[in-house]
Amino acid sequence: MAKKPEEIKPGLPAWQGTFGDLMNLLLCFFVLLFSMATMDAQKFEEVAASFSSAFGIFQGGEAALGQGALVGDGISQLNQLSNYIISMGVSQSGSQDEDITDSEGENASESGGAGINTEGDTSGIMQGTGGEGNGSEGDATGTGSEGDSTEMSTESDATQQGANSEETQEAAEAEQLKASETLAAEVNEALDTLDVAKQVDVNFTSQFVQLTLQGAILFDTGNAVLKPGADSILNKVGSVLERYAGGTIEIEGHTDNVPMHRSSGKITNNDELSDARALSVFYYFIENTNLDPSKLKHSGRGEYEPVADNSTPEGRARNRRVEIRIYNPLSPMY
Fold it and tell me: pTM above 0.85?
């Protein structure tokens, strides 16, 4: 009598379920390990670029990956791919010779010297600054630490240059300020000799010495025509300005913030009034002094640069003024 065939149970065998569970657990375990791992992004990019160049994705010729790292001539260097990886400090061979080479390269990088690569036929010396290697054959690069050291050195140099630039600028400003201070003392002495020091305020910056004449001394309210008696002050101020005729002299008119109420006439607002007053002083100096017109500038600033509070009569009186700036020889505006 024939043996009855064993009936095949539906579904997968039990051992396959256990095996599948084990594989899932292993997969989860390695995913967890990978998520906890850290990756050196810079070295990964260098390795990726080395692979791309070695397989001829880029055109032939040397291409710099960073400070102290070079890639050779495309696909022709495929047989030297391991050498590229070793030169970037990512070799995993662990041989004694490579350990010694890496140690020497790192020490040379820290001391600013040259890293020596003895692997294969690409032996040579590579300067820590990323210069061209002087090997017997091919191109050689230092270890990855050389690039990091050079980058830090570059940042340090940039910081030092910035500090030196700031110090140079501060020294130049101090020199300009000293020149303006000397010039202001000379102007004050000259005005005092001419007996107009009380009618002219003198101050200075690193760029210029400023003479301020109150508007009430030179003009009537809302008018840009020099009033009688203004010529005596302008003559004395002009004689002082003639001593510095070689540089730029700037005349600025200023007003308060009270609107012009005269609907008729040539001047309708404070901008026009300030400009017209500066122009009146400019024309007076041209006609009555030896100042060079090409060295004189004039402008009106209206009510936009007050020196006092416009809410009081005294403040508005101070804001109605004419400023004359004498630029010192060290100023770019001279």
Answer: no
